[in-house]
Amino acid sequence: xxxxxxxxxxxxxxxxxxxxxxxxxxxxxxxxxxxxxxxxxxxxxxxxxxxxxxxxxxxxxxxxxxxxxxxxxxxxxxxxxxxxxxxxxxxxxxxxxxxxxxxxxxxxxxxxxxxxxxxxxxxxxxxxxxxxxxxxxxxxxxxxxxxxxxxxxxxxxxxxxxxxxxxxxxxxxxxxxxxxxxxxxxxxxxxxxxxxxxxxxxxxxxxxxxxxx
Length: 213
What we know:
The chain contains two helices and eleven strands. The protein is mainly beta. It has helices at residues 50-55, 187-199; strands spanning 23-24, 35-39, 59-65, 70-75, 81-98, 106-111, 113-118, 121-126, 138-146, 151-154, 161-162.
């Protein structure tokens, strides 16, 4: 049975200043950057064990992102529409590791960022620490269900989405931040990812696995 969205009681603000392919706000060089990111992570409860992260997840799935996401717009008292800071897209499930969903299901998933183009520069305002999912991307997602809006969120922001391992040797130390879907690699995400690699068989996609091994 699906639970309501877990509301994180601990809020961690984390300003990321180490660039990979992105330029972070406040660190721009004189030459024009192509993508500038302003990131401040919210709603993070840190987990050191994959088992604990799993307990707080309604579903754990491998899925393919089917689009580039659409902005969720809201209106103020004057009827003016503006970006809510959230993007909504569709994830098609290819493997079920936990939860009452099925292979082939398409679920709505929310990402915490907004994006705009101005004078040839892309500006991303991020609240999760995760890079935007793009059409065709495949991820392992630990998700919490919001029954009010019938959507899913990653559990604990940047701790709820992971690279899809190819095999047991595909460990975090061999991956870049970009490959892990992060602006900057962090110890908690890397530690949980390595536990994920060991917990399941990779390289094949059995339809459903009810328990971690």
